[in-house]
Design goal:
The chain has strands at 3-7, 10-13, 18-25, 33-39, 46-51, 58-60, 68-73, 78-83, 92-99, 113-114, 118-123. It has 124 residues and is mostly beta strands. The strands form 2 sheets. Strands 2, 4, 5, 6, 9, 10 and 11 form a 7-stranded mixed beta sheet that branches. The chain has a 4-stranded antiparallel beta sheet with strand order 1-3-8-7, with no helix packed on it. Strand 7 and strand 8 form a beta hairpin. The protein is globular and about 40 Å long.
Length: 124
Amino acid sequence: QVQLVESGGGLVQAGGSLRLSCAASGRAFSSYTMGWFRQAPGKERKFVAGISWSGGRTYYEDSLRGRFTVSRDNAKNTVALQMNNLKPEDTAIYYCAATRTSGISEGTNNYDYWGQGTQVTVSS
């Protein structure tokens, strides 16, 4: 199995930036497609961004493309989410997840492993 631990969340003002990191432990990290999701209070968990096992393909929720960038470093077993020009509506708990399914899926039920989440709060 794979264990995932997110870090890098915090409190920022609108327009600020944060870089989230997901550290993975376990075998064959490079064979997993990785995704970032977020969940605001009272709302369902939603897809943010995904990246293929090689890092050669990325996919973003349409409204986030251009502000958020996902990357991975398989040598370090880490996945990052760079978030720029943050807005109050970005406030949520952010989770990283892993799946062996081919392609990049937006569905939470397609992911096998999840981190504990890290809180991102953006003030007006």
